[in-house]
Amino acid sequence: MLSAILVMSGLAVFLGAALGFAAVRFKVQEDPIVEQIDAILPQTQCGQCGFPGCKPYAQAIANGDADINQCPPGGEDGIHKLAELLGVEFRPLNAEHGEPKPKSVAVIDENICIGCTLCIQACPVDAILGAAKQMHTVIAQECTGCELCVAPCPVDCISMVPIAEDVATWKWKYPVVKLKVA
């Protein structure tokens, strides 16, 4: 019994060391410019740019396969930041991919919802809670306003409500530093 435990422990240590070595030896280095581009993008994962999410779009921009002006949620401000980062000329938003809209959040009319789960399947950020044949609701803080949940809803119970701009929802240019008052 004791020898079996020792053999299993030794095997676990050996395999752990082998996996640790492999992780260090075969680590794939990502292009830092992709990370910088992705940080500028709005992370709505809406697909309006023609890519399945912000990270693939960032990769395409870095590879030269996509232009910097394909992201309607990022708007003109995002295009300016991307142009500055990449050292390219600013181009206005390509209308082929949509137009900038005010930030909004999905709201489900719970009296109409039939619990079909199509909206849950369509949500790229898992901002919708619910179960089959049960009422669904949106976690407003997680919703990116991508509108991907609206089209699959068979009973049209989802509407996009613009978020009022106030102190709580304003995007500050600089991080807020909280000072301790002694």
Automatic annotation (TrEMBL):
[4Fe-4S] cluster 2 binds at C113, C116, C119, C153. The keyword Repeat applies. It is found in: Cell inner membrane. InterPro entries: 4Fe-4S_dom, 4Fe4S_Fe-S-bd, 4Fe4S_Fe_S_CS, Elect_transpt_cplx_RnfB/RsxB, RnfB/RsxB_Proteobac, RnfB_subfamily. Gene3D superfamilies: 3.30.70.20, Electron transport complex subunit B, putative Fe-S cluster (1.10.15.40). Its cofactor is [4Fe-4S] cluster. Its EC number is 7.-.-.-. Pfam families: Fer4_21 (PF14697), FeS (PF04060). This is Ion-translocating oxidoreductase complex subunit B. It comes from Sulfuriferula plumbiphila. The lineage of its organism: Bacteria, Pseudomonadati, Pseudomonadota, Betaproteobacteria, Nitrosomonadales.
